[in-house]
Design brief:
- This protein is mainly alpha-helical and about 110 residues long.
- About 50% of the residues lie in helices and about 10% in strands.
- It contains six helices and two strands; from the N terminus they run H-H-H-H-E-E-H-H.
- The protein is elongated.
Length: about 110
């Protein structure tokens, strides 16, 4: 009687594109900031008021990350204070954020 050999499963590998995406989106607050800016450009104070429980330091740090990632711009439009706006890459994330929002809303647990 011959022993059956069990095939070795293929090795797992994390998806490089998702890894890149979650380097930005995996940071707490980044998705919330992007989704909040989907409505319109906003000043720092408006964002701070709109996003409950985020500290000013955390908001400043996250906005800097989003600027560096090319998802948000920071523009001074006369007359008035500077505002943050989504770039085309930032806007391209909105459908994915909406899917995540719907998933969270419909979770059974």
């Amino acid at each position: 009687m011959a022993l059956a050999t069990i095939p070795t499963p293929a090795p797992l590998a994390a998806d490089a594109d998702l890894t890149t995406a979650f380097q930005v989106l995996g940071q707490k607050w980044n998705g919330i900031i992007l989704h909040t800016l989907a409505t319109r450009p906003a000043r720092f104070g408006e964002l701070h008021t709109a996003i409950d429980r985020i500290s000013t330091k955390m908001l400043a740090d996250r906005l800097r990350e989003l600027l560096d990632a090319g998802l948000v711009t920071h523009d001074q439009l006369p007359p008035g204070p500077a505002s943050y706006t989504l770039t085309s890459d930032g806007r391209a994330l909105l459908p994915a954020l909406e899917h995540l929002r719907t998933w969270a809303k419909n979770r059974t647990t």
